[in-house]
Amino acid sequence: MSKIIVLMGAPGAGKGTQARLLQERLGLPQISTGDMLRALEAEDIHTTQTSGKLISDEVVIGLVKKRTEQDDCNHGYVLDGFPRTPAQAEMLEKLAAAQGKDLIAILVDVPAEILEKRLTGRRNCPVCKEIYNVFFKPPKSDNVCDHHPNNQLEQRSDDRAERVQVRLHTYENQTRPLLDYYRESGRLRTVDGTREPEAIYKEIEMMVKS
Ligand code: AMP
Q1: What is the pTM of this model?
Q2: Which of 95, 103, 130 is nearest to 187 (CA)?
């Protein structure tokens, strides 16, 4: 039976990196609600995103429903950043049942003090989208991409320190309780997200294939 892989974890835990690897190597589409919302031409949504607060369940649920109806999702897909609230989790149960898919939740677990540096230190190249981190993976020259030295690195507006606090707070209050929900129904797996992405990926791949 095809599966819905729900990548759980705080902002900065590395869900996006793992979702991209699953897409590249297992052909499971990465469905990132954060990316889908950023791609919309909707100023009010971007203002809320920048603030670090959540977009309404109605909007996000609508996007996920529509995206997962596409043919490339028939054999399973990876959710990155969804669900984030109990209402979204409830909708996902219904969607999984209607699509005849099993669901597993994988928590990419990273301590809070590391998350803060991963987020506030994150920079990306506007050309090739390579991700750097001023604390953990600095570019060779200050604030420019190693491959595109004429381009200054950019910082996501919600990665600024005060907004990171709001995002981590929102995660603790609204999203972390969902872990208990998946744990109680025996569908939660946990990986140590402090290791190298490849090591984390290998473990996740085994969970997905089992
Ligand atoms: P992300 O790229 O996953 O860190 O998401 C960035 C921002 O997009 C979040 O801080 C929220 O404002 C919004 N967002 C992404 N996914 C959701 C979701 N499932 N529910 C509500 N808001 C979301």
Answers
A1: 0.92
A2: 103
Ligand 1 center to 140 CA (angstroms): 31
**If you measure from the C-alpha of residue 65 to the centroid of ligand 1, how many angstroms do you get, rounded to a whole number?**
16
210 residues of the chain, pLDDT tens digit each: 699 999 999 999 999 999 999 999 999 999 999 999 999 999 999 999 999 999 999 999 999 999 999 999 999 999 999 999 999 999 999 999 999 999 999 999 999 889 999 999 999 999 998 889 999 999 999 999 999 999 999 999 999 999 999 999 999 999 999 999 999 999 999 999 999 999 999 999 999 998
Pocket probe for ligand 1: among 6, 54, 110, the residue whose CB has the most ligand atoms within 8 Å is 54
- 206: Cα within 13 Å, side-chain hemisphere: 8
Q: Residue whose CA is closest, atom 14 of ligand 1?
A: 34
DSSP structure string for 64-78: HHHHHTSGGGTTEEE
